[in-house]
Design goal:
Chain B: Keywords: Cell inner membrane, Cell membrane, Membrane, Sugar transport, Transmembrane, Transmembrane helix, Transport. The complex is a heterodimer of chains A (about 260) and B (about 350). Chain A is an alpha/beta fold. Chain A is about 35% helix and about 25% strand. Chain A has nine helices and twelve strands. Chain A has helices at about 50-60, 80-85, 105-110, 125-140, 155-170, 185-200, 215-220, 240-250, 255-260; strands spanning about 15-20, 25-35, 40-45, 65-70, 75, 90, 115, 125, 175-180, 205-210, 220-225, 230-235. In chain A, a hairpin with a 2-residue loop joins strand 4 and strand 5 (about 75). Chain A is globular and about 55 Å long. Chain A starts with 12 loop residues before the first strand and ends with a helix. Chain B has one domain: ABC transporter involved in vitamin B12 uptake, BtuC (Orthogonal Bundle), CATH 1.10.3470. Chain B has 14 helices and two strands. In chain B, strands 1-2 form a two-stranded antiparallel sheet. In chain B, a hairpin with a 2-residue loop joins strand 1 and strand 2. In chain B, helix 9 (about 215-225) crosses helix 11 (about 240-265). The radius of gyration of chain B is 22 Å and the shape is globular. Chains A and B meet through helix 2, strand 8, helix 4 and helix 5 of A and helix 9 and helix 10 of B. The complex binds adenosine-5'-triphosphate and magnesium ion.
Chain lengths: ~260, ~350
Amino acid sequence: MTADDTSAPTALVEVQDIGKHYGAIRALEGVSLRVNAGEITCVLGDNGAGKSTLIKIMSGLHQHSEGVLRVDGEETTFSSPREALDRGIATVYQDLAVVPLMEVWRNFFLGSEIRKGFGPVKMLDSDRMRRTAREELAKMGIELADIDQPVGQLSGGQRQCVAIARAVYFGARVLILDEPTAALGVKQSGVVLKYTAMARDAGLGVVFITHNPHHAHLIGDHFVVLKLGRTNLDAGRADVTLDQLTQEMAGGDELGTLEHELRR
Amino acid sequence: MSTTVKAEPAQPGQDDQPRRPVWRRLFIRPEAGSLVGAVAIFVFFFATAAPFRQLDSFATVLYTAAVLGIMAVAVGLLMIGGEFDLSAGVAVTTSAIAAATITYQFTLNVWVGVFAALGVSLAIGFFNGYVVIKTGIPSFLVTLGMLLMLQGANLAVTRLVTGTVSTQRISDMDGYAALEAIFASEWTIGGVRIRVLVLWWLLFVAIATWVLLRTRIGNWIFAVGGNKDSARAVGVPVARVKIGLYMTVGFAAWFVGMHLLFSLHTIQAGEGVGKEFEYIIAAVIGGCLLTGGYGSAVGAAMGAFIFGMTNQGIVYAGWNPDWYYTFLGAMLLLATLLNMYVRRSAAKR
Ligand SMILES: Nc1ncnc2c1ncn2[C@@H]1O[C@H](COP(=O)(O)OP(=O)(O)OP(=O)(O)O)[C@@H](O)[C@H]1O
Ligand SMILES: [Mg+2]
């Protein structure tokens, strides 16, 4: 299961000519992408470009209709997110990162609860989970007054960080982040970007999805720009400038808004 | 637990960060509002209805609450898990009819009929859950369909085998006595009638509370009700949890059905319609959110207790029982407002 050998030719996860349609809607067509250990692959694209669809295939939430998905070089189709998680692929979704009404620590450990005791009387080790959740969040610079408060009461950035910290803590080898900075201010975006870089330095392969070429260019090693479900650009860091990336992302009329966003 | 990002050793002092003070934690529990309501209603009837003050009356109140409360706890769990069961009321009758009919028609030991009825009840729960999960049809509709099907079957089957709308007596058949002791025994201690069902109810509330708050399944129940897609994304087996909850309601329906069978001896086939709303109302009074993801078993039990007090209190106070539903409706609204207020001010911290 150790795949943090960066010189290995096989990618942690690879999709090749992948396609997906929802009924008559073609959400994705002929898209290829590699996720290597210790690298950040950025996926950019406008609303509806197919970014979320692409990563939902990699994380087992949807199945692809065409093409192949390989994990450690081995062809795979995930039938559930649990399978992807068991292969070390953890995803933080833009729309379903946490359960708002549940306490922070319960969210942190949801699906991977620590238990004590045996047989039918196995129960949650809530003290240990509370403590661990608090420590892991503190490492991300999130000091919560109360680990028992519902996640829904946290700020957007804090919620993202809880979800990311959870994925990293549970030993993910591949971390997929769906627009983690979309709803965040500059400072909180910075925290998320820093933590993403930390995950990369720890040897994880990261897929970073964003609308924001500025964020992407700050941390990306490789860039894939999607447009209407197809690959519009596929380039390494050395081959693309921020301006080019912005250009690829934005068709004419949106450029003004983007420029404004970049100049804040 | 492998940690990929290296953990700095935790500061020893940090581990014991103070939790909220106890009163604060009590106040933010989902059942906080219903506890206040229960005390208020208790005081109200205690002051206005003299017979209400006797211990034996209180035992009757508890019994009324238990008949409703066992179902309310199961339905409350299901609601926390984000689903409804409108068939729960008639399913109680179905279970009792199944046990009586199977035992009588095939002249079997009563134990066989009782376990067959358990099978029937669990199957109904499984069917509800399976259809809701696999088709994505709202549970409101699926279980409404089940309500109608069971209601029809209860009457049709009973009339077919007995020619009337009530079941035959099975009280002289083998195994009856032991089962009666389990489901419907009662003792009189110092003039107070203690029914075993009340003890069962308390036990079920305790188990449900423990499961909800202290086990992994409990965590999953809150999660599938709070946001089932998020829960699925982190590996929670959503389908199994929801189907399990429906089967828990099935189990509770069987248990209450058996109690009715062994205490009333014969079952009226038309009974049960409308009860499903009482279960849901009890759960809501107890702080369960209609939208799921929030609530407690103690709350649902409190809701049932409030029902019991009102139901009996009106009689003890000598009022026209016609007012019962008016009283109940007002209480539902008040309780919902109170719960909303408690949740809001808890959120403010
Ligand atoms: N479950 C679904 N059923 C039908 N169509 C869908 C579904 N999910 C996505 N689509 C469609 O597929 C296309 C791609 O959607 P997707 O969510 O992947 O875009 P995205 O790049 O993530 O957009 P955004 O930036 O807004 O998050 C869109 O046209 C969308 O309407
Ligand atoms: Mg998206």
